Amino acid sequence: MSFILQSHTISQRKNLKLKGTKTSVAKNQILISTGIVSLDAVLDGGIPIGTVTLVEEENYGRNADLITKHFIAEGVVCDHSILIADIEKKPETIANDLPKLIQEESFQPTGVVEDFKIAWRYSQNPIYDSKPHQTSISFGHTFDMSAKISTDELQNIKYWPNVQSQSTSYSHLLEFINKVITTDGFSTKIPVEQRHVLRITINNLFSPIWDSNDMDIVKFLYKLRILIRSSYATCLITTRAQIINNIIKCRIEHFVDTVLILKPMELSSCADYNGKLIIGKLASFNTFLYEPSCVDWATKLTRKKLCIEKLHLPPCLNDDENNENIQNKQLCASTTSRLNF
Amino acid sequence: MDVYDSIIRGTQPNRLIIIEDSFLAKGQFILHLISENRKSHDIHVLCFEHLVSQYQKLFPSLSNIHYYDCMTNILSSTLSMYETVTNIIAQSTKNVVILIDSLSMYLLGTDFRNVYKEVLEITSLEKVPNVVQLVAVIHEDVTEKHYTEHLKNICKTYIHVQNTNNPLVLNLRLEHKRSNGKCVVQKLKGELKSDCTFKLINDLLPQTIEEEKGIPKNLASFKLDLQENEKKAKEELVLPYTLVQNASNIGGIIHYIPDEADDWDEEDPDDDLEI
């Protein structure tokens, strides 16, 4: 999808810039932040407007839930309109549990570096940074999960299912999204000056409560894609990976633009991380090429913050067999050197 | 943390427990153990599997256990499980524990979508605040696998009862979701006694296998370990090269006072030497 901006001068274009968005010059796209700065970097800058992102969670973790909450909280901070759809929980409960915005001081490097006593030469070596590259502070905000956004700030939020529509079918949700996009002015057809950004979150896709009698999930995702493409909206969907069978999962993944898979960490030695992040698919537009990402990402969860880092294996310390081998080698080396002398 | 113990005793808040069993390895004894340990609650058993009189024999005879016959009127009654539960709540004043034996039987007559919704509603804090726990048994040989997967998603603890070669010995696999998002798996093996107690057999304890690694004696001609006071002395010792690194001590100055014979222009003072 490309946006036609040619008819405006540069100064006009600057005024037309939507709040909380960034224009990716390389891809000719408008991006919004996920609310997690390190996740933005992993997704090549942010989520493009007009796309659908799917987050698959495996084995009962709660990272997908946290990503959704950050996505909504970022929208609240940037004055975007928000639509929350959840059929298992009441959507209002999600809105009442959003992380709070904090100042970005935590990005400053923590000053005190301990002096090395013996290996002091190593103090000159650079500290390896496992954060993803191009983590920019200017775009996106930092949130603190231990505090909550006060409910007064939650204004532009719409909920589904609400009092008027209690039905839980895919077609009803689609109708509701369509109504919001057309009546509240998120369509690409309306004048540029009046444009706003809409963030849509759909939780627990493929839960048994969904009524798929009049529209099945694949058709729903295809129609949703058409709707989102022609509007200033971005959709984030979460689902549980283990409840979907493989054939349907492939179809679902085909119809969304970005796929993030969250897996639990199997290695007990990586206790720092709480899970793995696999990029199943990255939104690619204006190109036929598809560039897969080849880095393993891990999710790290503290009490206040969720962040994405490059996965590192910890150094192997207590490996007796290896140590013995090294000792043997050293013994051999010393005997030969003695002979040479 | 011992998951099994906390589930049986009910020491932690846990709104939904799913027990999956089969006809060879029945999981109803867990319901019995749970009902014994909830003295301060009202226990309501929804009986889908056997007649109420049979349950009264199987379960401990305590005054806080109530039985509801869902078996004989399952075909005629129009009352759903959720309605039955709301009726129960209306009557009781204490916190309520609901045991369902079994959900598979209820699923035979009801659409899974509705059952799932009812389970969600019964365990939601807003709609029925005084139901503190729902324990449901599912038979893996009756209910389809993907239904169980859906229910596993919403439950806090999932217990899989597996049979072994010995009919009295059962394997338990407990999957418990912690509040920090991690999932703990505990495997147990136990023998079912005739008085409905479950005696654990401790052959699966991995802690005992890991022996302590001490320093072997008579290995070297020098001492390998340090006593406490020796460690302390080692930490207090200031090594000479650490002094050099301290900024305040850097820069020893050479004091040299040139005398009259010194010639600063001389290129190499030693070139007259024959080396």
TrEMBL record, chain A:
Enumerate the PANTHER family for this protein. Answer: ELONGATOR COMPLEX PROTEIN 4, PAX6 NEIGHBOR PROTEIN PAXNEB
What Gene Ontology cellular-component terms does the record carry?
cytoplasm; elongator holoenzyme complex; transcription elongation factor complex
Instruction: Indicate whether Phosphoprotein appears among the record's keywords.
Output: no
UniProt lists the family membership as follows: Belongs to the ELP4 family.
Subcellular localization is given as: Cytoplasm; Nucleus
Q: Does the keyword tRNA processing apply?
A: yes
CDD domains listed in its UniProt record:
Elp4
Q: In which pathway does it act?
A: tRNA modification; 5-methoxycarbonylmethyl-2-thiouridine-tRNA biosynthesis
Q: What is this protein called?
A: Elongator complex protein 4
- UniProt keywords, alphabetically: Cytoplasm, Nucleus, tRNA processing
Q: Which GO terms describe its biological process?
A: tRNA wobble uridine modification
> What organism does the UniProt record list as the source?
Sipha flava
Automatic annotation (TrEMBL), chain B:
Q: Where in the cell is the protein located? A: Cytoplasm; Nucleus
Family (UniProt):
Belongs to the ELP5 family.
Q: What is this protein called?
A: Elongator complex protein 5
Which Gene Ontology MF annotations are present?
tRNA binding
**Source organism per UniProt:** Sipha flava (yellow sugarcane aphid)
Q: Which gene encodes it?
A: LOC112692493
Extract one GO cellular component term from the record. Answer: cytosol
Annotated Pfam families: Elong_Iki1 (PF10483)
**Which keywords are on file for this protein?**
Cytoplasm, Nucleus, tRNA processing
GO annotation terms (biological process): tRNA wobble uridine modification
Give the metabolic or biological pathway: tRNA modification; 5-methoxycarbonylmethyl-2-thiouridine-tRNA biosynthesis
